[in-house]
């Protein structure tokens, strides 16, 4: 699956250790006039201006010890009139609400030692899911409505049987909940099996030579544990189970293309949205949209590798509550790495991108002398490469020297996105935690 890039276009396809005591408590997401809303309820934020002098910071922080309150975030910068006052502004986020006696005591003590103290308001950010099951309220509207087959050049446009089949499979996705025991299995038709039988063995011939080692390793595991075989279409449930037992990722079936925000937000919970239908049998090597083959052959194996899956997770976490303007930037980053990324391996370019590994045309083209190859720099990709073809092969690809290099440049870019809070994923509780008081409000982009 790929996030939708732009309406009307068809896409192919300061984190630190946080102790238990610094978990954010958010009110559950609730329907509020049909809009989603949440507010963290147990954090206080303030700015304290302290004159630069020996031991003053220790003295200020000692107040939190005195009242047994945990700081969740601290940041400092010279105050506006530093040259004259020699004072610093300290931005402090800590546990507790204004009504708590300990919080009032802290404010009182800090006021006595500071030049100014300002109690901060609650920034509003675009709503985002705060626990795994919030995702059940997302993905209910896909771009293109209904079956997604609206365009005359879609191979299935005039095939009523195919359209009805797509609707049947889409309805399964709409009804699915992450609380369900398993993803419903599809009994694939002979036409659908024929598409798989045509594509999988042929694509597989490319993998040994052109895919990164990690991909080839997991394809073997998928054949052993997930029903990958030349004469069998694998089931999302089997792949999801395997992923949960290895990297903690899971699959959620989806009816079609999601908004960028919904698609990326799910990645923060290690949830990958996957279509379950198969492209039209008349053109087995072509699909104008992501389908099961793209998802399970392209994305599946890389989600089973801890290192590569981390790239998707970082992009997912960065998308939570991020300003709208950063969504297409994250989209470009995802496109040129997770979808079309290349990585050097023993001096050779190898593919790890799902859009390459699931496409005959892309596999031939990207290992020819035709395209340009650029070094992966996340800032450059996000700022200068947000326009790219979605229905032809890529004119250029971004290559990283190693997975670690790709991770580092993506991490740096994600950390640079301005956001009023920091966010952490709690693997055990499948929740995200924020380090300050915020309100999540549903917006058009949510
Ligand atoms: Fe994709």
Automatic annotation (TrEMBL):
Locate the coiled-coil region(s) and give their ranges.
none
Which InterPro entries does the entry link to?
Answer: ACT-like_dom_sf, ACT_dom, ArAA_hydroxylase, ArAA_hydroxylase_sf, Aro-AA_hydroxylase_C_sf, Aromatic-AA_hydroxylase_C
User: What GO molecular-function term can you cite, just one?
Assistant: iron ion binding
What UniProt keywords are attached to this protein's entry? Answer: Iron, Metal-binding, Monooxygenase, Oxidoreductase
Give residue ranges for domain ACT.
45-124
Note the superkingdom of the native organism. Answer: Eukaryota
Residues forming the Biopterin-dependent aromatic amino acid hydroxylase family profile domain are 113-446
**Which cofactors are reported in the record for this sequence?**
Fe(2+)
Query: What Gene3D superfamilies is this protein classified in?
Result: 3.30.70.260, Aromatic amino acid hydroxylase
UniProt keyword annotation of Metal-binding present: yes
Binding of Fe cation: at which residues? Answer: 294, 299, 339
Q: What is its EC number?
A: 1.14.16.1
Q: Which family does it belong to?
A: Belongs to the biopterin-dependent aromatic amino acid hydroxylase family.
Q: What is this protein called?
A: phenylalanine 4-monooxygenase
| Organism for this UniProt entry | Euplotes crassus
